[in-house]
Amino acid sequence: MNSNSDNGKNGYLEMIRKGISAVQSFDSCFSSGIGSRDERIERLKTVLESAEAIVIGAGAGLSASAGLMYSGERFHRYFFDFEKAFGITDMYTGGFYPFPDEETRWAWWARHIWFNRYVDAPKPVYRKLLSLVKAKDYFVITTNVDHQFQRAGFDKQRLFYTQGDYGLFQSMNPQDRKTYDNEAWVIRAMEAMGFARNDDGVFRLPDDGRIAMRIPAALIPKCPDGGGPVTMNLRADDSFVEDEGWHKASAACSEFLCRHAKMRTLYLEIGVGANTPVIIKYPFWAMTAENPKAIYACLNYDESFCPKQIESRSVCIDGDAAQLFERL
Predict the structure, then answer these.
(1) 274: pLDDT confidence band, cut at 50, 70 and 90?
(2) Which of 11, 96, 145, 193 could form a disulfide linkage to 253, CB 3.0–4.6 angstroms apart?
């Protein structure tokens, strides 16, 4: 196992332990916050200015606010043929579909990866968030795998992608705990399907709209070390590869949280839903409760709340992150 885990500097496990502890220590009384919506926004402005450090916890809602929707018009535009052939209705569920062959499965994944990892989000939400925190000592913990923080200019040394990266493959051999960049492969696969690249290097549908749903068998990705099969570096079970880069980011997360545990720290949660609350939401509650100088802020659409125990040191704002950032 990586030495970062051996010496205890594993921010991921530390966050989960705090999350479990929070579930056990907080009662079932919750609050949607204190004051009017305008008053909460003004309070968050003040907290952003006065905080000595900011820990951003981001979930899928942030990317959705930035326009990286997995359903609707964006899905129909790039996956209309898969929708017609297999009845798939969104990109998320399509990732679990039992495709008839590997050529079709990897054609799906090539599109999924390109349009969610190698293009900028349609709306500048991530860049606006960066403008709010770039003058501060900040760190980002995210369950998102679309790499939009780094694409928007966030310091990569301050990012921890806990659940993987669309831009990486991993070997299916349990003895080979390595990951591999997939951009060059994705480009070849997109070209093989007939997508056209514009002057900016971005793939678009060809003018006639004709694209293939399969890639050549020779293009099915293989492990560079030994030629074995690969899969996506996405956390689904214990086979997920936590590579050297992952452990380095995990250790940096641990160090940042420890260094600011008693300071005026803002735990800024954005777009975190109910799928993985033990990674960000619950630990943020716990760290706020442990530090009387800390403030917890929750920006979410229809899911903005906090435990009653930390209500006085919480700012809960219901709404779309893009609109909230404009106000801030």
Answers:
(1) confident
(2) 11
Q: Let me know how long the chain is.
A: 328
Tokens of 138: 């900040």
- SS3 of 55, please? strand
* CATH of span 3-65+122-162+242-327: 3.40.50.1220
User: Can you read off the two tokens belonging to residue 318?
Assistant: 């219901």
Sign of the torsion angle spanned by Cα atoms 96, 102, 104, 109: positive
Amino acid at 42: E
Residue with tokens 């590579």: 243
Return the axis-axis angle of helices 102-117 and 183-193, rounded to nearest 10°: 110
Inform me whether the pLDDT recorded for 8 exceeds 60: no
Q: Do residues 264 and 313 make contact, with C-beta atoms less than 8 angstroms apart? A: no
Mean per-residue pLDDT for 243-249? 95
- 162-180 tens-digit pLDDT: 999 999 999 999 888 899 9
Kindly report the number of other CB atoms within 10 A of residue 152's CB atom: 18
Q: Tell me how far CA of residue 166 lies from CA of 44, 158, 241, in angstroms.
A: 32, 19, 13
pTM of the model: 0.93
pLDDT at 7 over 80: no
Residue pair 229/172 in contact (Cβ under 8 Å)? The answer is yes
265-270 and 53-58: which strand pairing?
A: parallel
- Residue 299 tokens, joined: 């920006």
Q: Tell me how far apart the alpha carbons of residues 94 and 88 are, in angstroms, rounded to a whole number.
A: 6
Q: Pairing relation of β-strands 265-270 and 164-171?
A: unpaired
Report pLDDT digits (tens) over 12-63. 999 999 889 887 888 778 888 899 999 999 999 999 999 999 999 999 999 9
**Does residue 284 have a pLDDT over 80?**
yes
DSSP letter at 213? S
Q: Return d(Cα 284, Cα 199) in angstroms, integer.
A: 44
Domain ranges of the chain: 3-65+122-162+242-327, 73-120+183-220
Q: How far apart (Å, rounded) are the C-alpha atoms in residues 320 and 66?
A: 10
CB 118 within 8 A of CB 190: no
